[in-house]
TrEMBL record:
GO terms for molecular function: oxidoreductase activity, acting on paired donors, with incorporation or reduction of molecular oxygen. Transmembrane segments: none annotated. Signal peptide: none annotated. The keyword Oxidoreductase applies. It comes from the Bacteria. This is Luciferase-like monooxygenase. Residues 20-298 form the Luciferase-like domain. Keywords: Oxidoreductase. Pfam families: Bac_luciferase. It comes from Chryseobacterium aquaeductus. To bacterial alkanal monooxygenase alpha and beta chains. SUPFAM superfamilies: Bacterial luciferase-like. InterPro entries: Bact_Lucif_Oxidored, CmoO-like, Luciferase-like_dom, Luciferase-like_sf.
């Protein structure tokens, strides 16, 4: 089994009965905790028009987290690039990298991170996304290059800085693009598991070495809910299940507390849909988590596992990341 790094994906979850300021303070607390446990990076994901997720101003929040930590890499998982001008993103991440040298990642996705009406408010043109996204990545690379110093339009800060780009995907489309551009690839297995096998296969088989990367680098994002006992972990995971029911129902309310009985909340069809979406969710005590992750890694041989954890109680969420850290360490001790 190939050794792998572990990292955190944080959506800045807003919980019922808590404020958005509470959310941001919890995110910072988690970043510090993960840093002390030697997690590699802490990424925040761009979403819009959702009461349950507060990471809409992703670049701003990255600065807040980076300023409150010392060594962990901080970045976007991701910036939804067609929502923005590539020039503005180059300036924003150039500013972040200038403030926190050697610690900033720029993960890039093409999805809107929201509903159709909000996507329209963001100024997206859905008919040009597939053409626009690759072009914007090349624009970013140009703005960050030293060679752009002679151009009429320059990203300052940004120009000449080494800001790693990562291509994010939840289908096979971005796997082809990441392979073609020779960039690292992160797959959103935490909510879209169906095409992960094929996407990873495409990326590995068609990867073209570049000046940025000489061989494929794969990050798999999954859900993790760990506790001291299996019973407690399964209880805590009901927050995650309820959050995905809300997605199915198009109900964007804040994340709920865990419940004893999910069958009183979801219908049989909803249960089937949720469990299908959450195929790559590792739930259990330390030994169970270790076994689940071992089976996953033996199959996929990823370079990095990025863990998202929807747990209502903040202290329990911290403990989950600590138990997962111990579970992974036990696989290689």
């Amino acid at each position: 089994m190939k050794n792998f790094e572990i990292s955190v994906l944080d959506l800045a979850p807003v919980k019922q009965g808590k404020s958005i300021n509470d959310t941001f303070q919890d995110s910072l607390s988690l970043a510090n905790f993960a840093e002390n446990l030697n997690y590699k990076r802490f990424w925040l994901a761009e979403h819009h028009n959702m009461e349950s997720i507060a990471s809409s101003a992703t670049s701003v929040l990255i600065g807040f987290i980076a300023n409150g930590t010392k060594k962990i890499r901080v970045g976007s998982g991701g910036i939804m690039l067609p929502n923005h001008s590539s020039f503005v993103i180059a300036e924003q991440f150039g500013t972040l990298e200038s403030l926190f040298p050697g610690r900033i990642d720029l993960g890039l996705g093409r999805a809107p991170g929201t509903d159709g009406l909000t996507a329209k408010a963001l100024g997206r043109n859905p008919t040009t996304i597939n053409e626009q996204f690759p072009r914007q990545i090349l624009e970013l690379q140009r703005y960050f290059s030293v060679e752009n110093s002679n151009a009429l339009v320059r990203a300052i800060p940004g120009e000449g800085l080494d800001i790693p780009l990562y291509i994010l995907g939840s289908s096979t489309d971005s796997a082809w693009l990441a392979a073609e551009l020779g960039l690292p690839y992160a797959f959103a297995g935490h909510f879209a598991p169906d095409q992960m096998d094929m996407a990873i296969k495409i990326y590995r088989e068609h990867f073209e070495p570049s000046k940025y990367l000489d061989k494929p680098y794969i990050i798999a994002c999954v859900n993790g809910v760990a506790a001291e006992t299996s019973e407690e972990a399964n209880f805590l995971s009901t927050t995650l299940f309820q959050a995905f029911i809300n997605i199915i129902r198009n109900d964007r309310k804040p994340f709920p507390q865990p419940v004893e009985d999910m069958d009183s909340i979801w219908s049989p069809m909803e249960k089937t849909m949720v469990l299908k979406m959450l195929k790559f969710s590792f739930v259990g005590d330390q030994s169970e988590i270790a076994e689940q992750l071992k089976n996953f890694q033996e199959k996929y041989q990823v370079d990095e596992l990025m863990l998202n954890s929807h747990i209502y109680d903040h202290q329990k969420r911290l403990e989950s990341y600590e138990i997962i850290r111990r579970a992974i360490d036990s696989l290689f001790s």
